[in-house]
Structure formats: structure tokens, C-alpha cells
Amino acid sequence: MELRDIQRIRKSERPKRSKLFIHKADIMLLRDSGASFEDIRMWLRKNKRLITTSRNINTFYNKHCKGLKE
Which residue from 11, 23, 30, 46 could staple onto 35, CB 3.0 to 4.6 Å apart? Predict the structure, then answer.
């Protein structure tokens, strides 16, 4: 195997991390203050230049943020 083959295999096996992880604290703060997922989507688009869907934010919040409050 050549070096490029090894790097390609290694790169393909790395788990991908969501871009929302960087803004996790902002998402939690906005959600706790009563913002809807659509409001959070528009805020991320305007202030952080991050294009995503409200459904994606909903899934991320339920998976990574909801259990931290309890």
C-alpha cells in the first residue's frame, strides 16, 4: 500500500463532527430564552454565517443539549 492509500482509508474512517458543536452554548442559551428552532436557524445564518435547517438544529439539540439541563 502506498501512503496515499493509507491516508485515504484513514481519512474516510474518521467520524464527522457537526458544525453546530462550535455554537452549542449559543444554541442552548437561545433555546432556554424561548427561541424556536427556526429563530435559532435564522440567528446562526445572520450572525455566524452557518447555513442549516431547523430540523437539523432540533435533532442536534435533542441529542446533545437536552440531557445536560436535567
Answer: 30
Answer for the pair 28, 65: CB distance below 8 angstroms, yes or no. Answer: yes
Q: What cell does 3 get?
A: 501512503
pLDDT(30) > 80: yes
CB 31 within 8 A of CB 40: yes
Segment 20-28 shows an average pLDDT of 95
pLDDT at 13: 63
Q: What is the mean pLDDT of residues 24-50?
A: 97
For 42, other C-beta atoms within 10 Å of its C-beta total 13
